[in-house]
Write a structure and sequence with these properties.
The protein is α+β, with helices and mostly antiparallel strands and 162 residues long. The protein has 2 domains: 1-31; 34-156, Immunoglobulin-like. 17% of the residues lie in helices and 42% in strands. It is built from 1 helix and 12 strands; from the N terminus they run αββββββββββββ. It has one helix at residues 3-30, and strands at residues 35-45, 48-57, 62-64, 77-80, 92-94, 97-102, 107-112, 115-119, 123-124, 130-137, 139-140, 149-156. Strand 1 and strand 2 form a beta hairpin. The chain starts with a helix and ends in a 6-residue tail after the last strand.
């Protein structure tokens, strides 16, 4: 083999290795999901229900409040489909909020570590009513953030014995 063929071979080998490394990194980044949300239904009275969006968050990661400064992180939001018996998209935040400086955004923000529950006001509706919509949340650690996630949900209100 002459020098030209060796150079082409080495560049091809280097390029292949780089592609392999980037594909491996990309696949592992796509699987990263540091926050998991479980939708829970709670009947509080006859024909009255609450929806609870219960987030479990991995150590070192955060989910942001519904109320964050402009040009900051993506706030957690809830949008209910038209025709739903829910009139308020702002939910109660239940958890130990951490309010302080966030280096990712160079500002003071309100966020949650480990656990937070977002709870609707009581919904007055008959059993069998379908509630649906989308919630959006963003997770960050102290060094970086993942893109916001939009999650569609639907739940049928189910009566329980009181």
């Amino acid at each position: 083999m002459n020098r030209k063929h060796i150079s082409i071979f080495l560049y091809s080998l280097l390029f292949s290795a780089l592609v392999l490394v980037l594909n491996t990194y990309s696949a592992s980044a796509q699987q990263l999901n540091p926050a998991k949300c479980t939708l829970k239904l709670e009947q509080v009275a006859e024909e009255q229900y609450k929806l609870l969006f219960d987030f479990q968050i991995q150590d070192g990661w955060y989910v942001y409040s519904q109320s964050v400064p402009e040009n900051g992180p993506m706030p957690t939001t809830f949008v209910f489909d038209k025709g739903q018996p829910i009139t308020d998209n702002i939910l109660a935040e239940i958890g130990e909020a951490k309010e302080g400086y966030d280096a990712n955004f160079d500002m003071v923000v309100k966020k949650y570590a480990h656990h937070v529950t977002f709870e609707t006001k009581p919904i007055t509706a008959k059993a069998g009513t379908l509630i649906s919509g989308t919630y959006t949340y963003m997770t960050c650690n102290d060094k970086s953030c993942l893109p916001p996630k939009d999650i569609s949900f639907s739940v049928i209100l189910t009566a329980t014995e009181q």
